[in-house]
Design brief:
By secondary structure, this protein is an alpha+beta fold. The strands form five sheets. It has a six-stranded antiparallel beta barrel. A four-stranded antiparallel β-sheet has the order 4-11-9-6, with no helix packed on it. Strand 17 and strand 18 form a beta hairpin. The chain is rod-shaped, with a radius of gyration of 51 Å.
């Protein structure tokens, strides 16, 4: 039987190979914790999260907010007077007022030529004098006839004739006097006077024109008063009453206060809207008859939650606020907004009074961001964005 035998040289080579493999394993093994180098021991640990923004807090407040109803409409004259001629066939001699002039009652606006009218007045005066002379003679004859009426010196027919002539002469005097009064009235009407105080809004009179009776010369805004005629729906019309306060805004931004004077008794059959007539208080050059204006009816007050407008951020078509939790991280809340009063806006849903909200700067935040809360920041001013380096240095 053959036995496997190793030569001494072969055994020596095998032992050397085993020792080499052991040394290679020790060289490639990871060093233990006790073998960590000084450089590895001084390597810094990962840093803590840095705040994304420094913010101040606010909370929703309960208070009374006004209930307002907005409407569009037009400005018009409260009453517009048409001033025209009362005489016919006379020439316009002078014009004393123009568009935009403020005039007083009975102020002279225009004058007509008076030559022909004065001649007619003189003729009428002469006719009156003649009639009065004839009346005096007829009265004397009637008195003599009455004196001899019972003596038989005059017949009854003659006496009646004298008495009739007396009555006819008196009637003639009255007739000529009426003609004189008519001519004097025409003379007075050659001067066109303002029927009321106000502002001239239109002038169609032309110097030298010969006009017929009833021709319009001027238009006058009586007393300079304007009104706003707001257009509201039939449902909204029932919410408004006479005396309701209104704030009317012109296109340029000027505003005038007013009060409802009258509600239209009918509603337009085509639009189903009704008119509200509002007397404007005071005057403003920014308001002109015929211009468009927007008005807000003040219908009272109601309790509501409100926050500063700076706390509300509009994002992706939704109004949102940011609530700050106990860990100073923010959560985004969608809210339903309503009325606006000054720098406050009504929150109809989505927020509770005890919620602590970011007062401003929400547009720089995202849901879950860490913030630094300070109380010294102005609640309505957007704070500056804080970088990680600035936050670490504080």
């Amino acid at each position: 039987m053959n036995h496997l035998t190793f030569k001494p040289l072969t055994l020596g080579l095998l032992a050397a190979a085993l020792m080499g493999l052991g040394a290679l394993g020790m060289w490639t093994a990871k060093p233990s914790a006790a073998q960590t180098t000084p450089a590895e021991a001084t390597k810094p640990a990962p840093s803590a999260a840095k705040p994304a923004l420094t913010v101040s807090l606010t909370q929703a407040r309960t208070g009374l907010l006004p209930i307002k109803l907005s409407a569009n409409g037009s400005v018009a004259a409260w009453q517009e007077a048409s001033i025209g001629t009362e005489v016919s066939g006379l020439r316009v001699a002078e014009l004393h007022a123009n568009v935009g002039d403020s005039v007083k009652k009975d102020q002279l606006l225009a004058s007509f030529a008076t030559d022909s009218v004065k001649a007619d007045v003189a003729l009428a005066r002469a006719a009156v004098a003649e009639a009065q002379a004839n009346a005096a003679e007829a009265a004397a004859n009637a008195d003599r006839a009455r004196a001899v009426q019972g003596s038989g010196a005059l017949s009854a027919q003659q006496i009646n004739q004298y008495l009739t002539q007396e009555q006819t002469a008196k009637a003639r005097v009255a007739s000529t006097q009426a003609q004189l009064d008519s001519q004097l009235l025409r003379l007075k009407q050659t001067q066109v006077l303002a029927p009321d105080s106000g502002i001239i809004s239109s002038r169609t009179a032309t110097l030298g024109a010969v006009l017929g009776a009833g021709t319009e010369l001027f238009k006058l805004i009586r007393q300079g008063r304007l009104e706003w005629r707001g257009e509201v729906t039939a449902a909204e019309l029932g919410r408004i009453s006479v005396g309701t306060a209104v704030l009317v805004t012109a296109p340029g931004g000027a505003q005038l206060k007013g009060r409802v004077r009258m509600l239209a008794p009918t509603v337009d059959a085509a639009t189903r809207n009704g008119l509200v007539y509002v007397d404007l208080q005071g005057t403003s050059q920014a308001f002109k008859p015929g211009m468009f204006a927007r008005g807000e009816f003040e219908l009272g007050h109601s309790a509501a939650l409100s926050v500063p407008q700076t706390a509300v951020v509009v994002r992706d078509g939704f109004s949102t606020v940011y609530r700050v939790g106990a860990d100073n991280r923010v959560s985004q809340l969608k809210v339903q907004t309503g009325r606006v009063l000054g720098d406050a806006i009504e929150i109809q849903s989505g927020v509770q009074p005890e919620d602590k909200l970011v007062a401003s700067g929400g547009s720089f935040l995202s849901d879950g961001d860490l913030v630094r809360v300070v109380q010294s920041s102005k609640p309505n001013s957007a704070p500056a964005q804080v970088t990680p380096a600035q936050a670490a240095s504080k």
